[in-house]
Amino acid sequence: MVRECCIDIICEGCPVLLVIDERRRFIFQARRGAVQGSDKGVLRHDDILGKEYGSRVKLSSGIEAVVLRPRLMDYMERGFRRKTQVIYPKDHGLIIMLLDLKPGMRVLEIGVGSGFTTAVLAQIVGDEGRVYSYEVRKDNIEIAKKNLEKIGLANRVVLKHRDARLGIDEEAIDAAVIDMPDPWAVLHHLYRVLRPSAGAVFFLPAVNQVQRLLLALGLHGGWVGTSVYEVLLRGYEPRGDALRPYTTMIAHTGYLVYARKVHMR
Amino acid sequence: MVRECCIDIICEGCPVLLVIDERRRFIFQARRGAVQGSDKGVLRHDDILGKEYGSRVKLSSGIEAVVLRPRLMDYMERGFRRKTQVIYPKDHGLIIMLLDLKPGMRVLEIGVGSGFTTAVLAQIVGDEGRVYSYEVRKDNIEIAKKNLEKIGLANRVVLKHRDARLGIDEEAIDAAVIDMPDPWAVLHHLYRVLRPSAGAVFFLPAVNQVQRLLLALGLHGGWVGTSVYEVLLRGYEPRGDALRPYTTMIAHTGYLVYARKVHMR
Amino acid sequence: MVRECCIDIICEGCPVLLVIDERRRFIFQARRGAVQGSDKGVLRHDDILGKEYGSRVKLSSGIEAVVLRPRLMDYMERGFRRKTQVIYPKDHGLIIMLLDLKPGMRVLEIGVGSGFTTAVLAQIVGDEGRVYSYEVRKDNIEIAKKNLEKIGLANRVVLKHRDARLGIDEEAIDAAVIDMPDPWAVLHHLYRVLRPSAGAVFFLPAVNQVQRLLLALGLHGGWVGTSVYEVLLRGYEPRGDALRPYTTMIAHTGYLVYARKVHMR
Amino acid sequence: MVRECCIDIICEGCPVLLVIDERRRFIFQARRGAVQGSDKGVLRHDDILGKEYGSRVKLSSGIEAVVLRPRLMDYMERGFRRKTQVIYPKDHGLIIMLLDLKPGMRVLEIGVGSGFTTAVLAQIVGDEGRVYSYEVRKDNIEIAKKNLEKIGLANRVVLKHRDARLGIDEEAIDAAVIDMPDPWAVLHHLYRVLRPSAGAVFFLPAVNQVQRLLLALGLHGGWVGTSVYEVLLRGYEPRGDALRPYTTMIAHTGYLVYARKVHMR
To answer: Using the beta-carbon criterion (under 8 Å), do A232 and B232 form an inter-chain contact?
Structure first.
């Protein structure tokens, strides 16, 4: 578990994002006596303990780098152990908006993967909120647990090694994120545990899954506002004198289907 | 100010989103004796007071509708008074992720517009957080104030009718959103008030502004991680038997430029 | 029928694109004594007869305009009578590349609509090529015929008021464009009349049609290189001092499915 | 030079596209006694000479493959020697439409690269058309020459090892494609040699180049219809039972700027 670190100063145990250049970025916890290696030189942790985040430091090679407080997005890129493809920040952003996520909410998650989406949800709901996360694979649970502990969010998450298709324990859920191949199989359980008017987002890689879910939502009859989205994020080379989009981009992660619970007819 | 309403039940003063069909959506506060009109029939507020959000109701015409708790996104579409083009939810989502927004943060906003971005920031930072919002136009301040009061978020926001180019009062800011035509004019003030390692997102409609900002960030020397993005959101007709993207889409709102404060060389 | 007009000079009967400004564009044939009206003033045809294409002219109001030789794309925007949604130039371009269209080819078209795609095909195959176009609706045939005559391409096209699902007369077809809701219903006929190794492009608005066609192509067994595309065209406001994408764009016309005929197993 | 091959039959010297699977695609000329190797087995050319394009063949390993007539797009992917980044077929398609390319046209090209765009232009203008191609680098000229000979289009192209900024010899040009870093440097020559009303497309990778060209076109005063485009091509995994976009895509090749010559004021 990460200690609550002193606001702006890097202390023993504080998480650090070391940026040497665009490609060389490392995340670690500062530990007296430890070192962080790279092909551009070594950083002695002792050189940054007691310094401010945002400081410039020198590697053993004399090359300059900066130390930053890692954001969730930085963890996603560098610091998370991962087994499966995770939802991307471009999608998380829209999920937050669609579900109207805010502090204090009780959120249900089905399909945890490496726990990155879990972390995003836990960060937003805050200490008074709670995330209930169902996952059928034991190895994913272990990875997610480690990842959440690393960033100090584990206390807001109830990780459950359970198949949500067999039932969901919680009630009065404010919002749900469903990342599983056959979400129609949990639709009745999901409906029961959501508070009326609450929304769910389903993440689905293939068109066929979207179609099947839309049919299931329609047949069920207790959902409104059903919408389907995909988010495309385009990055640019950040050069004022030669601005241009990067040559390649992620063209597809998955489709987002949103729907809200209402009373049955 | 909106009363803290009873969790799931529509009470006097509670905000309501009435959905008759895709095009007919209304947001209002429930008031005993009041009515909500539409070309498809009239809703008597008395018919929904005491009912659950998510209920189905009958209009005077016999047509069925549903009543929902409005999300911020619903307010943006229907309930906000607006004078200028606002940043879209597709952009807000990425802004939240880029800035690692979370409860308790102190956020700076320059350029308030109708207050929608302000509301998004205020919703995420929660009651312990604070949003400091600078705006040069008096009429925008008035509109934003009304909008924020309507959704019960005004107490988390300090609206300032001030030109941030002349100075920023706050300190130890955790994150900033800058929506003004000439952000380079506030760069030095912004740098001073941000906590080290904290990030800022600049929203800019035209390429030329992005280029000029990139040059200014580079010349200043106290920023890293500079990135430029655009977010494209594509919606689909939600029909399982005839799925297809909507014919038209918003192709451009603006570019997002992100950068983080580090120590000067 | 359009006379073969004198290379660069506007003669009696020559097609003219009059551009007053971005929104005021007119296509007509120059006729001695005729006038072209607009809310910005009137153009007397006599004022342009004998002048070069590319000339600047004055309307009755004194406002300046230019006269250009219309391209197919200009006809599509202004000069074509239309009943149904046409495939867009962004799609035509890719179709030309996928089918390797060139002068002298014999092209099959199923689904003529207003004849715009027909015109594109006819323009590329030249005088030695031929386009065979099947269309079930009589009114579409009439419109397409008029449109093709207007631009002088009718002599390269054989318009057939026939249901291609009942059979196709031609043989040794070099390339095919299929724009109908149920292309799987012509697959066997299409296969028979294509030369081996020749390709076909299918235009389909909905995802479900694409899926069904893919299954049909697979079951048939005589096709390779099957690919599915969508083309997104993004326009920018052409201002060097304030470059930005247009706010809205056409997000979807249809999917293009390409496949090539090979011997059956 | 490629012999004019017998319509549908693979003869000595005919170009062949061998497709073993999605990743294993080879282009070669059929030669008695020759072999085409691959890690999946060897193809003896003698096994396909005299057979129809579109035939299924067995490799030495017993694995089945098909032989096709290569399209220009296939050459681009497999058969062309290349030194520089070429314009992509997605862009060529729009270029053909914007310039209204057709048989018999006289087309100017500045910036030849590996000759792929040259080939596209030459294929469309046919035997009565002509492509005049300027290129400053000798090695590009050599590569383009070989590539054009390989596909039998060299006779329609006049390759010029010349700097177009110093002047253009031709006149009465119907259309132009300009792929060079500083197109503003040829604008006056280009204007002079284009027929009035004819169009030019400029291919530019960076935003800054687009801005500078737009300013130059405006200052010159002899151009109308100026437009800026980018083409995004999105491919899908062609599986009816699990349709989804490919994960990555080419997000950027370059911007296309189109303008037409008119009389100076």
So the answer is: yes
Residues 6 or more apart in contact with residue A68 via CB below 8 angstroms: A16, A17, A18, A19, A53, A54, A74, B197, B224, B225, B260, B262
The contacts of residue B262 (CB under 8 Å, 6+ apart) are: A54, A55, A56, A66, A68, B196, B197, B222, B223, B224
C181: closest chain B residue by CA: B242
Residue B173 has pLDDT above 90, yes or no: yes
Give which of B111, B109, B114 is closest to B135, Cα–Cα.
Answer: B111
Separation in Å, CA of A171 to nearest CA in chain B: 13
Which is higher by pLDDT, B216 or A3? B216
Nearest-CA distance A182 → chain D (Å) = 13
DSSP state of A71: P
Q: Which chains touch C (3 or more CB pairs under 8 A)?
A: A, B, D
D155 — alpha (psi -120 to 50), left (phi > 0) or beta?
alpha
Rounded CA-CA distance D56/C203 in Å is 28
Chain C interface, Cβ < 8 Å to B:
205-208, 234, 241-253
Secondary structure element (H or E) that encloses residue B25, with its range: strand B25-29
* Least confident stretch, A190-199, B78-87, B90-99, D185-194: B78-87
Nearest to B90 among A100, A102, A231 (CB): A231
pLDDT tier, A78 (very low <50, low <70, confident <90, very high otherwise): confident
- Chain C and chain D share a number of CB contacts under 8 A equal to 225
For an interface test with A, the pick among C204, C207, C209, C252 (most A C-beta atoms closer than 10 Å) comes out as: C207
Is 80 exceeded by the pLDDT of residue C86?
A: no
Task: Tell me which residue has tokens 């090694």.
Answer: A161
Instruction: For an interface test with B, give the residue of C234, C244, C249 to mutate (most B CBs within 10 A).
Output: C244
Q: Which residues of C172-205 are buried (b: 16+ CB within 10 A; e: fewer)?
A: ebbbbbbbbeebbebbebbbebbbbbbbbbbbbb
Cβ burial, residue C6 (10 Å; 0-12/13-18/19+): exposed
Q: Tell me the pLDDT tens digit for each residue of C142-182.
A: 999 999 999 999 999 999 999 999 999 999 999 999 999 99
Residues 6 or more apart in contact with residue A100 via CB below 8 angstroms = A175, A199, B71, B72, B73, B123
D255: number of Cβ within 10 Å: 24
Query: Neighbours of A (≥3 Cβ pairs closer than 8 A)?
Result: B, C, D
Question: Could you report the predicted ipTM of this complex, rounded to two decimals?
Answer: 0.95
Question: How far apart are alpha carbons C151 and D147 in whole angstroms?
Answer: 36
Contacts of A245 (CB under 8 A, 6+ apart): A234, A235, A236, A237, D251, D252
According to DSSP H, which parts of B186-231 are helical? 187-193, 207-220
CB contacts of D213 in chain C (<8 Å) are 240
Task: Convert D91-119 to b/e letters by CB count within 10 Å (16 or more is b).
Answer: bbbbbbbbbbbbbebbbbbbbbbbbbbbb
Interchain contact, A94 vs B96, CB within 8 Å: no
C212 within 8 A of C245, measured Cβ to Cβ: no
Tell me whether residues B230 and A231 touch, CB distance under 8 A. Answer: no
Subunit contact C263:D127, Cβ cutoff 8 A: no
Residue D261: CB atoms within 10 A of its CB come to: 26
Q: Does residue B225 surpass a pLDDT of 60?
A: yes
Q: Which residues of A touch C208 (CB under 8 A)?
A: 211
Considering only the beta carbons, identify the residue of B124, B197, B227 that sits closest to A68: B197
pLDDT > 90? residue B19: yes
pLDDT digits 0-9 by tens, A202-238: 999 999 999 999 999 999 999 999 999 999 999 999 9
D23: how many CB neighbours lie within 10 A of its CB? 6
Looking at residues C228-241, what average pLDDT do you find?
Answer: 96
